[in-house]
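Read as chain and fold; for instance:
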Amino acid sequence: MPSLCYIRSDSYGIGANDVSNSFSAAVGSKAITLKQAVLIASVCEFLGAFLMGSSTADTIKGGVIDNTLFADQPELLMLGMACSLIGSSTWVLFASSRGWPVSTTHAIIGAVTGIGIAAFGADTIQWISIAKIVLSWIVSPVCAGIVTAAIFLITKYLILIHDNSLRRGLVAIPWYFSITIFINIFYIVFKGSPGLGLSALPIGTILGISFGCSAAVFLWCFFFLRPYLRRKLEEGETTLKWYQAFYTPFVKKQEHPDPHLEALHHEESHGLPGDSEKKSGDVASIHSHGHGDINQTLKALEDNTPTIRKRLYVVFLRLKKKLSYGMEQDINQNTEEIDAIHQTATKYDPTTEQLFCVLQVLTSCFASFAHGSNDVANAVGPLATILYIWENGSVDISGTSPVPAWVLAFGGIAIDIGLLTYGYKVMATLGNKITYLSPSRGFSASLGTSLTVLTCSKLGLPVSTTHCITGSTTAVGLCSGSGLKSINWKMLGFIATSWGTF
């Protein structure tokens, strides 16, 4: 079915452009690496699209144009929706290739509006729905900014500005985690997925499930995560592994390793310099010599006498290099102008900031889940219309026919592929080029964005996550201590211009 190609292209463009919104702050603040962000976001985006992607899809497929005008010509509506997917995906992919953080929601709404006007004129457009959507584009970044500013200012005045900020942060971390989990679980269950029947649960049951999950997380954070962070950050047990956070009280106190013994152990494990060069004829040794660097390994292999085994290995490494290219980029390369803007921001205790790294990953997952729930509609809404006409030979007048689960899953997978291969370009633009982002600032921006997007998703409003994260990032910049000087207004103007070009 040709429309599957169109949705794949449109969803791919969404993954390449909009998914970066969720983890750009986390990568920009160096809480996690680009590769880690891409892998985590792939899971969160798919789950958000599959579990909660149906309400906004209803708005896209039946709330923009008057489907009753196409009742006698269902094939015309099918053609129009296919054209809307082609048009929106072409623009989004073009913008993504240049690192422009455009709104995929703008693109699909504009495309669907265009096919309605082309088919029957302006009368086919439901202008009240358009006005509501456009209003949400204006209100959502303001709301996201207000929520984000409130979260950051509470964090700033309760924790960051104090001399004992680390101890205060250790007390606050369980509360932050439990509140974030409560909101996330509440939205998942309250909105639900039609196939799971969660939305039919009584509100009391939903609140009970949410409180239960948040209480369990609070207890884990209090008895396990908080001691782990205290030992690692306050007491300096740097040898603790991340997985030991799940059983910290049972981990014995570890002595600081002797640096001389560490160096000796490293030499014994890896050999003296030049030893690996003597073994360059063996493929495995060459790979070890390159310490995992694909480019060095390829060069070493090509410099040796080719064999069938080496040729196959070269093919494997080249394929691996192509597939992982989008996860190996450095998005934190800033100009002197941007570095000067970063210098104006107030810096807080770096050890305390590390507390928020784990929390920022959680809120970024939250924001990524929210994005998947909202923006998958941009691609699956038109496809759901095409599929309905294909199967029934008529137009869904109500515009509320259920979106098949496999359609949501297909859109989620295509979004993940776009993120894996091309998401780094837009992430580089949003990461640190609007304002300085530390883990505490990034956590506030991610949580404020996800709250706004999930609320709008519940209401069936296809808001722009690009607008929301931009509003949130600007808000934390304005709260950073230097006011207007902490914001890259030139970049904001550029982003706003790209929003209006679709």
